[in-house]
């Protein structure tokens, strides 16, 4: 090796630029190989020829810091980033509607494969990384490539079937959606064909999703209507591994399929289908159920009768937590989504009407009103653009039908027609104007609108009548809340969405619990809370440090309730396994347990702490002596018990449940003392006020009932909650009630005035339990989002 | 230089067209990883970072049609920076309320400084931006480079292996590896500069 002199900087520059004569270049190159000084000069020459990279503070950034694998890499293949990108870029063109979210869930895997096997340039930067979801063909490809695995099926004895699930012989796979697999099966007990929807195994691993799938299925089972697919059964496979819904089997096609064959449809046919959808919706809305995902793929048309049947009621919500990110970003097919859903706000009846409008628009015009190549594009159009009225695209479309369609798609929910029933009736007018139709095609409509006067059965409602009726819907808080939503979304990027006005109370969030937190209680010091969790565990949290101090398995299945003893260091739990258990709160030693033989949703200690009361799923109230473990009394009421409470003077026990009646019992003998009527649906929680004779009950329906236990009369109703209410608690002096609601809010009411004092917002979904710490003015809430929030309300007590 | 000058220059215009699907995926491709890296650099976990990135995308998607950003003030990138900063600010504020940590407070201070202040935040932002430009530039440069020269660069600069290893693998002298690496570096530098200027004129 020859030791030569170092080349000059000019020579090195020429070498980099390729302009150094060949003879000099080879010598210099050889020299550089052994000279570290020249190596670094060469590097600096290459990186800083001119004053670039000004952006980075005029520093010369080493090239490794720009292109190195570690710094410039794409997010790892298992990163949530890919889901986020897929969610905003997912193709919505020519989609098989339910498959869009399937592609989202499958995406990380395919991304992973891609970035692992691709060349160096792709691992170094995003340049050749075209987001997978931008390929419009990707979705079907993934669907096709994934074989239908049905591991939950047992072998059928009859070779004509592909397998067996319980007493259902499965004959074929009807379809697959994001949420699950739909099977056609034969019910061997009832000897009929059924459709079975099995929750996607991906979601089935998630207890929250599975619980919800079953719960929504149960709620849907309550709807019985000719235009709603009947839900027969909600079931779980023996080990609880697979959840499935058994539904009426409909021989026919989806509207999605029908539209692929014929688009646009004759206006009379479009109106007839929309009328029946609206009728089905009115039945659900009458039970306070929102569909949330009205789209052609969820609308079935029965062969022969051409009757329309809605399916998948409320199921969109079942997988919400899986499909929504924490910021509330919506994934899935937004083509028929309402603006309020697109902005992540809660869907209500009016959202279903918007979606119905979008579907009707597509039937009439042949195009989906907000079609765009990307999800974001669609959402943007939903929020900003008003589609061309159908009548302008085709003059054969009757004006009233066109106007109704546009009114349904009003951006402002308050300006949409007032109810699905109203829409169904209006459409009936339009349909009959085409000539007499079979009475079979005119649907039964729940709670017929009082405002609508049908002037002769074959006459169209005049435009003025329609307008007046819609204007009537304008009044009320709906318009106000809509305005707030739109402010939030239309604001400058800097704007922070603040949906709820009013004072903001600080809350400490205890997140990451493994599932819905069904109950929460403060320890005697007020510094810790215990939580009853859906997965059977109990957690003890230190509030200030936001740390889990203890966690242990308390029950098989859901832990429904947890409560500290009024004086001793013991804590009681109850669970879906029918057990009521007493634990030493220090050592976590099991001190006592009772078997109620069916799920116990609530328990309560007697104020002296010597007895405990439990209400179970079979309607039995049990009282037990804590020290001896001896059963004291029991009584059975109709239906299931959802909540019990013990009066502060120890003399009374209250119970509520599925039969809509509040019952007050003598605590010793369990003889009936009072029966309070007035709830319209199941009652979820009952609570005695700490002083006096008041009793609060909440449940299905938005009203909070306050009763006088001495007279048995209703003292007051508190109105203003926008959802069902799960839990109620009184403040220490009984002047205020705190109510946890399905809508994710917790509201504080002044009992003297009956006025809403404040609303605590923060939970992302239903709040199931609220517990008060009277000394430090803290409130703990817990719910479906798996978090516990501890609110400091010292600011509220002026 | 084969690709994209026109594409990039008009990306913003095209983004305003809801039907231009390609523009949107170009945008995600060019800015997504950068946003993610930037947000992660603030100490966020993967899921939280992805949430923020998605939220920024969504805001871009819904606001770009109405966007009238000031060209004098650094254009689109600076607008994007503002959105991202605001999102991060909200995030840290929330977290601080839930229970402050030293890092949250420091981050909030940093985030609340004026947008055009030179600080660690904006430097990190610029660095991540340069990294994305570098990634784009790499593609162009690779196409126009002799494969062996490119490999020398890839092994040493991208994969971070030693020149000696590269020399062995490519049967080149160590000196030749250094020269190859610096040649590619210089070309990349020029290409990055070109991309930057192009973006400035958007």
Outline of this structure?
Chain B: Keywords: DNA-binding, Sigma factor, Transcription, Transcription regulation. Chain A is α+β, with helices and mostly antiparallel strands and 798 residues long.
Tell me how many strands of chain B there are: 0
User: Which structural category fits the helices and strands of chain B?
Assistant: mainly alpha
Could you name the CATH topology of the largest domain in chain A? Methylamine Dehydrogenase, Chain H
On the 0 to 100 scale, the average pLDDT of chain B is 77
**Rg calc of chain B:** 20 Å
- Total number of helices of chain B: 9
Strand order of the largest sheet of chain A: 1-2-3-4-6-5
Residue fraction in strands of chain A: 25-35%
Q: Could you say what the CATH topology of the domain at 5-117 in chain B is called? A: Rna Polymerase Sigma Factor, Chain: A
Mean pLDDT of chain A, to the nearest integer, reads: 76
Top-tier CATH class of the largest domain in chain A: Mainly Beta
Task: Give the topology.
The complex is a heterodimer of chains A (798) and B (202).
Chain A (H helix, E strand, L loop, with lengths): L8 H9 L4 H13 L1 H12 L16 H4 L1 H4 L7 H10 L9 H19 L2 H5 L13 H8 L17 E3 L2 E9 L3 E8 L4 E8 L1 H4 L2 H15 L9 E6 L6 E6 L3 E3 H7 L5 H19 L13 E4 L5 E3 L4 H4 L1 H4 L15 H4 L6 H17 L9 H10 L5 H4 L5 H10 L11 H14 L29 H12 L2 H14 L16 E4 L6 E6 L5 E6 L3 E6 L4 E7 L5 E6 L5 E6 L3 E6 L5 E6 L4 E6 L5 E6 L3 E6 L5 E6 L4 E6 L5 E6 L4 E5 L5 E5 L6 E6 L5 E6 L4 E5 L4 E6 L6 E6 L5 E6 L3 E6 L4 E7 L5 E7 L4 E6 L4 E5 L6
Antiparallel strand pairs in A: 1-2, 2-3, 3-4, 4-6, 5-6, 7-8, 8-9, 10-37, 11-12, 12-13, 13-14, 15-16, 16-17, 17-18, 19-20, 20-21, 21-22, 23-24, 24-25, 25-26, 27-28, 28-29, 29-30, 31-32, 32-33, 33-34, 35-36, 36-37
Chain B lengths: L4 H11 L5 H21 L4 H18 L11 H24 L3 H11 L7 H24 L3 H12 L4 H8 L3 H27 L2
Helix pairs in contact in B: 1-2, 2-3, 2-6, 3-4, 4-5, 6-9, 7-8, 7-9, 8-9
